[in-house]
Write a structure and sequence with these properties.
YefM-like fold, single chain, about 35% helix, about 80 residues, alpha+beta, elongated
Length: about 80
């Protein structure tokens, strides 16, 4: 991962974005401390799961279609609440 100082990242923002798209994540530092990482839209969507609905996520489960799958209920009563 390439590291950019903030002032360089601001001055060369277009280059920073293009490198994130082609070379992978780009780190931005302020006073030597890592503050941000710029990633391509494709990587962001992959990492965040953007675009997948809950139904699609559940259908992709390795447990999909298992009829013998049983979830046991906890028989204990709920906690006491004083009103």
């Amino acid at each position: 991962m390439q590291t950019w100082q903030m002032q360089t990242a601001k001055a060369r923002f277009s280059d920073l974005v293009q490198r994130a798209n082609h070379d992978g994540p780009q780190e931005i530092t302020v006073h030597g401390r890592s503050m941000a990482v710029v990633v391509s839209r494709e990587l962001f969507d992959k990492l965040s799961g953007a675009g997948d609905s809950l139904v699609e996520f559940m259908q992709a489960s390795p447990l999909m279609g298992l009829d013998e799958l049983v979830f046991e209920r906890d028989p204990s009563p709920g906690r006491e609440v004083s009103l």
